[in-house]
Write a structure and sequence with these properties.
Residues 1-22, 29-48, 55-117, 277-302 are annotated as: Disordered. With 1101 residues, the protein is α+β, with helices and mostly antiparallel strands. Among the domains are: 114-192, Orthogonal Bundle (Arc Repressor Mutant, subunit A); 297-326; 417-664, no CATH class; 675-854, no CATH class; 882-1097, no CATH class.
């Protein structure tokens, strides 16, 4: 039998079903396996075993050209018996009769038709397959071929053979990977890194923010009704059972599924739990989790990287940064940790003087919707806040309104102090987690109730304006914008001033040490609650019921161990800083020194030694009355304007008053994390450089896009900004340059690009000026310091005398240096002196001008001009989330950033088309044989079509009835009128900025290539203008937009915002288009690289 023909198996009669089983299997195997390569199974007692052992004879070491697929024998159903008799059950288990066999080979199409078949196959691939955002996704080769054959059969054309289709896949998607899965007899070949467009449309939603909300909509809707009903039970019955249900709701309904639960659909999982919560709450009780065994350091680093990536994918940037930068580890659950926690929560001092509730109090104003929503935004950006924010979203309609109403009723009940007494210890308690500090000791983290935090934030927002006025000017830690910076400037100026008489500078620390365990205590945990409540009763009586219940004896749970909370403020309570400041305020008022400055529990006083000693005695005495104890071993004192003899006498006096007090040395002179002396600047900046190197090493475990996002957002200069604003670090240019050198190494490692001097300089510019937004410390230090000095000048004047301020010339020196650098720039207006960007912008514009002057090649000129155009760098602002389709793979991100900075992308080589490709790789962007051009076009149209659907505008791609005489059609058509009663027709095009035909124009005028392409499209489809609104969407490979196309995208984004309520929809849509262009650019450039054979033989081992 010829192996190239397919002979259908002969269908036996039902009577011979068992007797001729082996014969039929022989015919099935012969017809599919072919006469020359098949080994017919011999007679055997167990036919199934014999069948499973059937193999295909082939040459050694060569895998089959196509994956094998299970083929079931085509047995007809048994004929039903006559009459009413039911047919008997068959004894044959057909599920075990699967024959593994390759697809029957096909003859290749004739040479005359091969070109048309190849072009048709290429179009089919580009329309139905796209590059996957998730590298783990893959398409089975057998599945691809089956769908292609169905397409050809429906069209009535002859399909290409498998090998030719494989070559076209490689051309269309250069980054695709092939792999072999399964063992012998069950081999499957896959194409990795690509996915079906239809599947991608199901996985991705219509816009970036809408994706996050739409993916959780049904899940939240189920949560909404269950939570609303639970809250309403509390407000109507106020029973213990209702409060218990409210406390247990998140543990039962929002529990994280375990692997053993085998959850496939998270929405279905939550909906099922919410339904069972309303009918049978016992069935939703989560099972206790088994403690995880300890893991190695390497495993911890890998887990850290995975968790950071997951946080970024969910949009929790703050959580990702905390995970990446934290050095704390969870303390072991043992007796030592428990003893430390007990010591940090001491009993209340006796005798206690708790006040009675006030008699006649004006009730507080009802909670408004905007106050509630503002408090929700404040709550830590974790899952709890996101769930609440989603549940109260207007997209949930009446259900959201009902939950808002129920929530306000619950908070009103709490505000009145009507929580049952037996519920208060648990409801106002918390669960404890003990962290090991890097410097020793433990840090207890209390995770309190979200309802308490919500109401506490509303209360603190209400009292803050009055509180700031009451505490000013000495307390800088509550409601004072720039309070820490003002304190650092005031302390630095006073410490470095020329004093004609001896002056003492004292830093006090309220972290007493528990002598038995040698544990550092927390000042917030030390204050007396009876003193606190007496102050609240007098100052804010309308909030006394709520605050009194919060600070009644409560319970903190460390595992299953209950720890009583009888003293101090609870950590993490939004009201904590305000309450602590109220307690210590009488101490501030009793001190009479030239400098009297407090930032919560960090106290600093300075004046003559006698007054400072008097202030020290006052703090010790009055502090003990409110429960605070000064830790003299942590206090520091320095002397200014004293002779060595006087300094020795003063030191002895302070040693007697505060045994164990430490001297303030020039190298360690810091306050609130800011250096006070030049020597301290050197020490602090050196430590910052070491920390940057440490954090940069952790970025290596992340993907390039995620690592860059975090590097720019926090790890690099942003973590240095407070230091740069508070200290004159601009005078230490050599040290700042060392910091920048470390930053450059981290950026080169992240991008996998070598940065030339010009590329490194360009990277420091903001994205809107053509850079990457990675600011350099050398450039940022001076504007930071000048802006901070001006923005805090009034606060500093209220802390220290004016003559001391005017004697400081540091600000004047910085402004003179700025004038020297900002050649031709004017000083910012009086109202903008405190704006950092007002001082930075002139320097950045000079840097941009310098780069343009250095550019001599037309390509560099065009690149720099294009980079500063609106939205050209929108892809740099996207959140790197695979779920949202905005995460670029490592190689794609490298090529995209190299294109922007003008870095080398590849080694010079010859393109498959025969042209030479330079190290910049620009040829691939214009090469007509490049596969990236097609994928870029398909991806951009995909984004536009889905965006229109998100705006509730149905549309189709390649609409019929709009074709030209040559058969070419526009890319899309809206099915309903877009404007003026006409449907919208769009056609996307992307012109190459660096193409020789455009380069002369784009090197002089940005966007010239896009405008040329825009005009060409208008001429091409002018015949449509009498029936439709035709808009060409023209872009350039550098991200520059033609104006009309950009206006259309912005209009679509505005309609999405109106439909969904997401105000950032327009920005998200532009970012998605920008990402699609960059992906196409990468595919086009990498498509010029020479193909090579992969090491597939290893899969045969």
């Amino acid at each position: 039998m010829d192996g190239g023909e397919e002979v259908p198996p002969t269908s036996p009669s039902s009577e011979d079903l068992n007797t001729s089983l082996l014969g039929r299997l022989r015919r099935v195997g012969s017809s599919w396996l072919g006469g020359g390569g098949a080994m017919v199974p011999p007679p055997a007692e167990d036919v199934n075993v014999s069948l499973l052992s059937t193999t295909v004879v082939r040459k050694r070491g060569r895998p089959p050209k196509t994956p094998t697929t299970p083929i079931a024998p085509n047995f007809p159903p048994e004929s039903p018996s006559l009459g009413d008799e039911e047919p008997g059950p068959s004894t044959l288990d057909t599920s075990r009769l699967a024959v593994k066999a390759p697809r029957p080979p096909r003859k290749s199409v004739s040479p005359s038709n091969r070109a048309d078949a190849t072009a048709d196959a290429t179009n089919w691939l580009l329309e139905r397959i796209r590059v996957s955002d998730n590298p783990a996704l893959a398409i089975l080769k057998s599945q691809l071929m089956d769908r292609y054959e169905e397409y050809c059969e429906g069209k009535g054309t002859e399909p290409l053979i498998d090998s030719l289709i494989g070559k076209e896949v490689k051309k269309c998607f250069p980054n695709v990977t092939t792999s072999r899965k399964g063992g012998r007899g069950n081999v499957q070949y896959t194409y990795g890194g690509i996915t079906w467009v239809a599947d991608a449309l199901q996985q991705q939603q219509h816009s970036q923010q809408q994706q996050q909300h739409a993916a959780r909509f049904r899940e939240r809707l189920a949560d909404l009704h269950a939570l609303t009903k639970t809250v309403q039970e509390v407000t109507t019955t106020n029973s213990e059972e209702a409060w218990e249900a409210l406390l247990l709701f998140p543990y039962h309904v929002l529990q994280v599924p375990r692997k053993s639960d085998k959850v496939v659909n998270l929405t279905k999982w939550v909906k099922d739990l919410a339904h069972r919560w309303g009918t049978d709450r016992q069935s939703t009780t989560p099972a206790p989790r088994v403690p995880r065994p300890p893991i190695s350091t390497e495993q911890q680093q890998q887990q850290r990287a995975k968790k950071v990536e997951a946080k970024l994918s969910d949009g929790d940037v703050g959580g990702a940064i905390r995970l990446l930068t934290s050095d704390d580890v969870i303390a072991p659950n043992n007796e030592d940790t428990l003893s430390a926690l007990l010591a940090k929560h001491p009993p209340h001092p006796e005798p206690a003087n708790f006040p009675d509730p006030p008699n006649k109090v004006t009730p507080p104003a009802p909670i408004e919707d905007d106050q509630l929503l503002a408090a929700i935004v404040f709550i830590s950006p974790r899952k709890g806040r996101r769930i609440l924010k989603d549940l109260l979203s207007p997209t949930l309609g009446q259900g959201g309104e009902e939950l808002i109403k129920a929530t306000k009723a619950l908070l009103g009940l709490m505000l009145r102090g009507d929580v049952p007494e037996e519920v208060c210890p648990i409801f106002y308690g918390a669960s404890l987690t003990a962290l090991l500090k890097k410097t020793g000791g433990i840090r207890p983290v209390a995770v309190g109730n979200v309802w308490r935090r919500l109401l506490a934030k509303i209360v603190v927002n209400r009292i803050t304006p009055n509180l700031v006025e009451y505490l000013s000017p000495h307390q800088l830690g509550v409601g004072v914008k720039g309070g820490a910076e003002a304190g650092a400037h005031a302390a630095r100026i006073f410490f470095n001033a020329s004093h004609h008489t001896p002056q003492a500078f004292l830093k006090m620390d309220f972290t007493p040490i528990e002598r038995r365990l040698f544990l550092k205590m927390d000042a917030f945990n030390e204050i007396r609650r009876d003193v606190l409540l007496n102050i609240i009763r007098e100052k804010y009586p309308e909030y006394f019921p709520f605050i009194a219940q919060c600070h009644s004896p409560s319970t903190l749970f460390y595992g299953t161990t209950a720890i009583p909370s009888l003293r101090g403020c609870q950590q993490g309570d939004p009201l904590g800083p305000a309450l602590f400041s109220l307690v210590v305020h009488p101490i501030l008022q009793a001190i009479n020194t030239t400098l009297n400055m407090w930032y919560l529990d960090d106290a600093t006083v300075a004046d003559s030694p006698a007054k400072v000693l008097e202030a020290l005695a006052t703090v010790v005495k009055m502090g003990e009355e409110v429960g605070l104890h000064l830790n003299t071993a942590k206090c520091e004192v320095g002397f200014m304007g004293a002779t060595p003899l006087e300094e020795g006498e003063l030191w002895a006096a302070f040693q007697r008053a505060a045994p164990g007090i430490l001297p303030i040395l020039p190298e360690t002179a810091t306050l609130l994390g800011s250096p006070l002396t030049d020597e301290a600047i050197v020490s602090v900046l050196g430590k910052k450089t070491e920390d940057l190197a440490t954090m940069s090493s952790r970025l290596r475990d992340l993907t390039s896009h995620s690592a860059f996002y975090l590097l720019r957002a926090s790890i690099s200069t942003p973590r240095l900004i407070y230091f740069l604003r508070c200290a004159p670090s601009w005078t230490k240019k050599a040290l700042l340059q060392e910091y920048d050198d470390t930053l450059k190494g981290a950026l080169e490692t992240t991008l996998n690009c070598h940065l030339s001097p010009d590329s490194w300089l360009q990277s420091s510019l903001p994205v809107k000026l053509g850079g990457l937004g990675v600011r350099h410390a050398v450039d940022t230090a001076m504007p930071c310091f000048i802006a901070s000095c001006h923005s805090t000048s009034q606060l500093v004047s209220s802390l220290i005398p004016e003559d001391v301020i005017t004697a400081d010339t540091t600000l004047e020196e910085a402004e003179r240096e700025w004038t020297t650098l900002a050649v031709g720039a004017e000083k910012p207006a009086e109202t903008l002196l405190g704006s950092q960007s007002a001082w930075e912008s002139p320097l950045q514009l000079l840097t941009t001008q310098k780069l343009h002057e250095r550019a001599t090649e037309p390509a560099d000129k065009a690149r720099l001009l294009a980079a500063i155009q609106p939205h050209a760098g929108a892809w740099l602002k996207t959140l790197p989330s695979p779920q949202l389709g905005t995460h670029l793979p490592n190689e794609a991100f490298r090529v995209a950033t190299a294109l922007r900075l003008g870095c080398d992308i590849c080694v010079p080589h010859k393109c498959p088309c025969g042209d030479q490709v330079t190290a910049k790789g620009y040829h691939g962007l214009k090469c007509r044989k490049s596969a990236g051009r097609h994928s870029r076009h398909a991806a951009a149209n995909d984004v536009i079509a889905r965006a229109l659907r998100s705006a509730e505008v149905p549309c189709i791609k390649e609409p019929p009835g709009c074709a030209r005489a040559d058969g070419k059609k526009p890319d899309g058509l809206t099915m309903v009128p877009w404007a003026r009663g006409r449907s919208l027709v769009w056609d996307f095009t992307c012109a190459d900025t660096f193409a020789p035909s455009h380069l002369l124009a784009t090197s002089k005028r940005p966007g010239a290539a896009a405008e040329t392409a825009h005009n060409a499209k208008n001429r091409k489809y002018a015949f449509l203008l009498d029936r439709f609104l035709f808009v060409p969407v023209a872009m350039e490979t550098t991200g520059v937009w033609a104006k009309e196309g950009l206006h259309l995208i912005e209009a679509i984004g505005e309609r999405i915002a109106t439909t969904t309520g997401e105000s950032r929809a327009k920005s998200f849509l532009i970012q998605r288009m920008s990402v699609a262009i960059q992906r196409g650019n990468v595919a086009a450039i990498l498509g010029t690289l020479p193909p090579g054979k992969e090491l597939e033989e290893v899969f045969n081992l």
